[in-house]
Amino acid sequence: MDISQFQFASRSSDPTWEEPRFNALHTIRFFSDNLEDREKCLHTLSDRARALDRISMDFQMLFGSDGPAHKVESFLRSYEVALPSGISVVQPNVFAWLNDTNALRIACQGNHQEKVRVLLEKGFTIRPDAVFSAAVKAKETKNVAILELLVDFGWDINKPLRETTASLMCTVLEVPELVHWCLEKGTDASLSSPSGLAIIDIAAGIASLDTLKLLVSRAGSTPQGDAVARASYSHASGDRPDRVDVVRFLLDQGYPIDEFFRTYSTPSGHDCEAMMFGRQNALHFAIWAGKEEMVRLLLERGADRTKPTRSLMKTDWKTLSPVELARKHGHLNLVPLLEDECIGAKSARRE
């Protein structure tokens, strides 16, 4: 497209500058209630903004295929202008719109290392969604080349990715070599997300025991949070049936045994997770799943067998005692354990 006819502004302070709106116009947001506003915005774009929107769409489409990186470079060169110093740069208003596309995220998601490099060298902004996509891909490929690029070009390894994601390490906790890479790059294992979800709490549910031990040793913080509950939930749901040793380790470190599983509201306010989980702790999870080994461990270590539970997930929003929960889910073998106030003492005598 010949951009000379549009006389795009060179500075954001210029009256003809078009604020980038590509992301707002074309990125689908679940639970969004501004669809009508977006449609209205599309129909009220100036001719300049429409031209910038078309250029940006053509640019983003370059990243939906396995085409070579030089096509991206050629596209960017076609919109370069010469500065008084003689240096050529992408026309500033055009660049602002291109920078507002999902190009970097798509390149990271597709594992297109050279395209990522081109964008970073041109000064494209590194956003959390691109880092998240790169981390997910690295978990699949075990290749950190793109993550290395993102960090080398300025991404803070300890910056949150989402409200419930303290850092990029949270997305790769299942892969020990990637956890080690994150730690080598300076990840702080004691961090929590903006909403308060700690790295250790997430790791308790999905990381290996060796990885969890490493993170706990690096965190060096006072044991707190719902790590025990999260480990028990992973065990109960079948996602990670190896959590008994993890729970034993966490209890040895002093993590609270009766802490309820915490839910964290999303920015949109659609807190479905809180409705489903209600008030459940490690013992409640083990009971409804019929995990006798986990139930025995928790009771032997002092879990409160009288603490009631209430959730849409497992009690139909009725308040039940642990014994009632076991009966409701047909795990009658657990009833004597939950009624036996002396199980801890009996276990100690056996030892």
Automatic annotation (TrEMBL):
Keywords, ordered alphabetically: ANK repeat, Repeat
InterPro entries found in the cross-reference section: Ankyrin_rpt, Ankyrin_rpt-contain_sf
ANK repeats (start-end): 278-310
UniProt protein name: Ankyrin
